[in-house]
Amino acid sequence: MLTLLLIVLAIAGLLVVMRREAGAPAALAVLGVLGLVGLLFDAEVIGILLLIGAAAVAVAGLPALRRKWLTPRLFATFKKVAPKVSATERTALEAGSVSWDGELFSGKPQWDKLLAFKDDGLRDDEKAFLANQCAKAAGMCNAWDIAQERADLPQQLWDYLKKEGFFGMIIPKEYGGLGFSAKAQSMVLQKLSANETLMVTVGVPNSLGPGELLLKYGTQEQKDHYLPRLSDGREIPCFGLTGPRAGSDATSLPDTGVVCKQTINGEEVIGLRLNFEKRWITLAPIATVVGLAFRLFDPEKLLGDEADRGITLALIPRDTDGMEIGRRHHPIGSPFMNGPIIGKDVFVPLDTIIGGPDMIGQGWRMLVECLSIGRCITLPSGATGTARYALGWSGGFTRVRRQFNVPVAEMEGVQEPLARMAALAYISQATVYQTANMIDHGEKPAVPSAILKSQLTEFQRVLLSDAMDVHGGKAVTLGPRNYLGIGYSANPVAITVEGANIMTRNLMIFGQGAIRCHPYVLDELAAKDANDMQAFDKAFFGHAGLIFGNAARAFTLGFGIGKASVPFDGPAAVYAQDIARLSAGFGLCADAAMASLGSALKKREMISARLGDVLSNLYLTSMVLKQWQAGSKVEGEEALLHYSCRYLLQRAEQAFVEIFDNLPNRALGKTLNAVVMPTGRRWNKPHDDLARDIAKRVSTHSALRTKLLENTWDADDGEQRNPLARYNALLVDYDRAEKIYRTVNKAYAKGELPQTALHPEARVEASLEKGLISAEDAEFMRTFEAEVLEMLTVDDFAYDAFAKNKSTLIDHNAKPAPAPKQAATNVK
Q1: Are 334 and 493 in contact (CB under 8 A)?
Q2: Nearest to residue 281, comparing CAs of 270, 290, 272?
Q3: C-alpha closest to that of 437 among 694, 182, 705
Q4: What are phi and psi of 280, to 5 degrees?
Q5: H-state helical runs in 95-181
Q6: For the domain bounded by 219-353, which CATH number is listed?
Q7: pLDDT for res 9
Q8: Between vectors from CA 205 to CA 200 and to CA 206, what angle results, nearest 5°?
Q9: Cα–chain-centroid distance for residue 260?
């Protein structure tokens, strides 16, 4: 009995030591004391085994002992097997900052660090801009007009965007810009997402491009000249990075610049001769100034001793000799300005280099540092704004669209996608807002930028697909009345640009995070590069302690033992506690994958992607909880919180299962499964009851719908009619209309109305004649039904409207030409 008790106490004591990462002395104390107890009370065998364990811990765990024999051997092995980090990779790893993503990697997230990012909201001028200028700009757009009739924004809209400073949101006020916060910039793009071409046109100049690069790295002369002109639209910028042979692998760009001399106006000038071919460059067809990335060479060593000077960035005026610009690509679904730029023997002076000669070779660092912010805002904000509009349109349409005498919003087959849309919109709003708030506090979230870009644009794909499904024929028939179809067809653009999602998910999120966010890996690699064994010893055994700690935390939390302390109360607490559990499991699995696969993990992209999926879903859930904690709540929002968190945590657990099932070392996979999920999976997909409740609220005039649609263009006060405002108005009147529907449909079913009254309008008139409804109700329904019919109506066109070449048009109903008359023959 004593033996069993000592075993239990040893296991429990070691789990406590491991959970707290108390180190070798604490573990030595547990084993040593229990071993002595065994020897003193006639349990010699277990006592000796415990003391042997204590000796092993002392030899391997105490720094003074291990550094004499173990650390040198480990260090030699590590230097042989550790992955090589290229200069390009190191630049990317060192870009940006580590914040909450690092906490999730640690396996013991400190929630106070996340909650410390207080939200001061928007400034008064930012709120006014959203309410006025953004609404006016959105009100000038009709998707059909822009995509099919003009292939461009209207001229008056271009003029308005320039006049009101939309292209200078990130530029400080001292240079004529708006100087907006990251949150305000995100909110602007969300509101402008009523039209995807408008959002992209405004978003790109305020993201990765000359403006931000000049702000951070430009010379004072460059700032003074360009920033005021970019702010007021006198200059339209674009940035040329990708090309035919350099897309996701942007560092392999083959475009070159060669340092050379050229005589200009009788004077010999040192400059650059550029040869490049760029494609898919947004705003290129109309840009007045081109940012350009290229590989710089100095074969004559005019600037120094190095011939290969690395990736460099320059800013080149449109009218520079030798540059071909102005042609357009045709992006799927959206006519935003995008095109190629080609340069042959383009000579530019050295002062076109962004930052001047001092920034030669620093181009890749400049790009990745800027991208850590821009990628967090532009496309994620566009996806979030699209989610708001798609949800608003879909909720309104499904409530006024009736089949089988009921709104289709009452059908469970429609309620399921409506609830999913609401949850994805809710998650997106929380994530993009809270991440932008971190940026406003000085963070440069490199890994979260990859999470937001890939996850929220994938949400956008799901949302738009769901919206198309519930709209049916209304959305698949294009024309001026179709507010959804063109945006749906343009969705692949967001999936593809700024780091294609397939690459971002498989390579970047975990691939970058495993080194950048891990508490010890970067230190271990730095110790290897510096050949510093003492620094390696500190990092490696700290890393070992973390592995044991995460294993103990994941295992005990899996049984519900010692729940993590979280600063949440109410419904959020259980989800925060489970994030702590899954974070420990994630940290353990990340280390197990890196240890078992080593440098081969780079090629095992599906495993890397699933590890990234775990991190992504934990990050998204954290942002939802922070938003819930900080914001005001409305009726029905708790159901949406439950749905969203369960949806995300179920996805995280599914990714874990796929990791366990696919690790090449099957024993390791099964062991991790037993440690991380000792009682099996905890989260299922959200319950149908939640879906029904959420779907009803987002398809009626409710507090939850109003909150989800905040910061949209929701007033019918623009140059173009606003479908969202029209649906909102119908929902305000819907309860009254529904009572009248029930009265007239019940009367029709009983045979009290003529059987020929097949349309709602006919039944209303018949009910009025029978005295079943009042004249006031009849007049109300005439107006209501007319508006409903208008929202259900689709466009039609002349037969020859779509044939650009009218000569190819076939008249399928043309009368056959008369047969030629046969010549008469004389028969004798």
Answers
A1: yes
A2: 290
A3: 182
A4: 60, 40
A5: 100-106, 111-115, 124-129, 135-138, 143-144, 155-163
A6: 2.40.110.10
A7: 84
A8: 95
A9: 43
Q: Which pair of structure tokens corresponds to residue 129?
A: 């801009």
Q: Give the whole-angstrom CA distance, residue 263 versus residue 266.
A: 6
Q: Is the separation of the CB atoms in 653 and 684 below 8 Å?
A: no
Question: Measured between alpha carbons, how far is residue 28 from residues 23, 58, 612, 802 in Å?
Answer: 9, 7, 36, 81
Three-state secondary-structure class, residue 313: strand
Residue 41 has φ and ψ, to the nearest 5°, of -120, 40
Total residues belonging to the chain: 828
Tell me the percentage of the chain whose pLDDT exceeds 70.
97
How confident is the model over 299-358, as pLDDT tens digits?
A: 999 988 888 999 999 999 999 999 999 999 999 988 999 999 999 999 999 999 999 999
CA distance 727 to 732: 9
Other residues' Cβ atoms within 10 Å of the Cβ of residue 816:
5
- Encoding tokens for residue 644? 């969203």
- Token representation of residue 53: 């364990």
pLDDT in tens, 358-408: 999 999 888 888 877 888 999 999 999 999 999 999 999 999 999 998 999
As a whole number, mean pLDDT of residues 438-458 equals 94
**Hey, what amino acid is at 756?**
T
Contact 591, 547 (CB under 8 A): yes
| Termini Cα distance of the chain | 132
Residue with tokens 């399921």: 416
Compute how many other C-beta atoms are within 10 angstroms of the C-beta atom of residue 782.
Answer: 14
Distance CA 449, CA 467 (A): 26
Contacts by 558-562 with C-beta closer than 8 Å and gap 24+? Answer: 558/675, 558/676, 558/677, 558/678, 558/679, 559/678, 559/679, 562/19
Residue 564: CB atoms within 10 Å: 18
Q: What is the dihedral of CA 696, 697, 700, 706, to 10 degrees?
A: -160
What is the reported pTM?
Answer: 0.93
Q: Which of 610, 580, 619 is nearest to 592 (CA)?
A: 610
CB atoms within 10 A of CB 410: 17
Q: Are strands 289-297 and 237-240 parallel, antiparallel or unpaired?
A: parallel
Q: How far apart are CA 781 and CA 768, in angstroms?
A: 11
Cβ atoms of 353 and 309 closer than 8 Å: no
Helix (H) or strand (E) holding 95: none
Active-site positions read 498
How far apart are alpha carbons 476 and 470 in whole angstroms?
11
Cα–Cα separations (whole angstroms), residue 249 to 246, 498, 500, 504: 6, 12, 11, 11
Closest-CA residue to 108 (of 533, 576, 581): 581
Cα separation, 624 vs 442, whole angstroms: 21
- Comma-separated ranges of CATH 2.40.110.10 domains in the chain: 219-353
Spatial distance between the Cα atoms of 314 and 363, rounded to a whole number of angstroms: 9
- DSSP E strands: which ranges in 541-637? none
**Paired residues of 353 in beta bridges:** 314
From the list 551, 514, 592, 573, the residue with the least C-alpha distance to 677 is 551
Confidence (pLDDT) at 828? 46
Q: Are 310 and 287 in contact (CB under 8 A)?
A: no
Phi-psi region of 499 (alpha: psi -120 to 50; beta: other; left: phi over 0): left
> Distance between CA 278 and CA 343 in Å, rounded?
9
Q: Count other C-beta atoms under 10 Å from residue 251's C-beta.
A: 20
**Tens-digit pLDDT profile for residues 489-526:** 999 999 998 888 999 999 889 988 888 888 888 888 88
- Name the helix (H) or strand (E) containing 713: none
Is residue 711 within 8 A of residue 187, CB to CB? The reply is yes
